[in-house]
Specification:
Keywords: Membrane, Transmembrane, Transmembrane helix. By secondary structure, this protein is mostly helical. About 70% of the residues lie in helices and about 0% in strands. The chain folds into 2 domains: about 1-65, no CATH class; about 70-208, no CATH class. Strands 1-2 form a two-stranded antiparallel sheet.
């Protein structure tokens, strides 16, 4: 049973990313949601069938993305839903808080993890109380603000870590992944651009 779950989770990022990208592109030509779903599924099938060297394009994407964290999986699902329905999640306070936390976590984690800093914060995920305490504070704030999707997703990640449900023994890998960080950055770039566009211009002086 777990091998089947592992198989699906390992490929979930690639499936959702290919689907969301194709559906979003089809949105540019104003296709119906049903047709966007069809195009997304066709894109997944094409990625599976197109060979690149000894593997399919889909397998290359899977190997590049690996398994998503719980928040990363939720964010990918939201992007896929938005690509199909056109619904804007970036206007909601829960979405903004969740993606802001992902951006902040990635800024704190990845520069040190890849060697740009003398200190590697990735080690905090193996032991200690700093990362668990930070997650408790985020959970408490999420519950206070009734951000139940964030609370549930973090709980799934933490429980997965405690049960050693994944291949990693590091707590970081259950609450953030590189793709989720990049998607969160992209979401906030979109939010910032939309804020600038919507910013009211000062009224010009009236010429007599």
């Amino acid at each position: 049973m777990m091998s089947a779950v592992d198989y699906l989770l390992d490929r979930s990022s690639a499936v959702l990313l290919v689907f969301a990208a194709a559906a979003a592109l089809s949105h540019l030509v104003r296709l119906s949601p049903a047709k966007r779903i069809a195009i997304g599924l066709i894109a997944i099938a094409a990625a599976v069938l197109i060979p690149i060297s000894t593997r399919s394009a889909f397998d290359w994407i899977v190997s590049a993305l690996e398994r998503p964290s719980a928040p990363g999986l939720l964010l990918l699902a939201l992007f896929a839903i938005s690509a199909v329905t056109g619904q804007r999640f970036d206007r909601g306070s829960e979405f903004r808080f969740g993606t802001a936390m992902l951006v902040l976590a990635g800024v704190l984690l990845y520069p040190g993890a890849v060697g740009f800093l003398n200190y590697d914060p990735y080690a905090l995920g193996y032991s200690g109380y700093v990362l668990p305490l930070a997650l408790v504070l985020i959970l408490a704030y999420a519950l206070f603000r009734r951000y139940f999707f964030i609370a549930a997703t973090l709980n799934v990640g933490i429980i997965g870590f405690l049960l050693e449900a994944g291949r990693s023994l590091n707590l970081w890998d259950y609450v953030i992944d590189p793709l989720a960080w990049l998607l969160a950055i992209g979401a906030w770039i979109t939010i910032a651009i939309a804020a600038v566009i919507r910013k009211p211009k000062p009224a010009g002086s009236v010429v007599a």
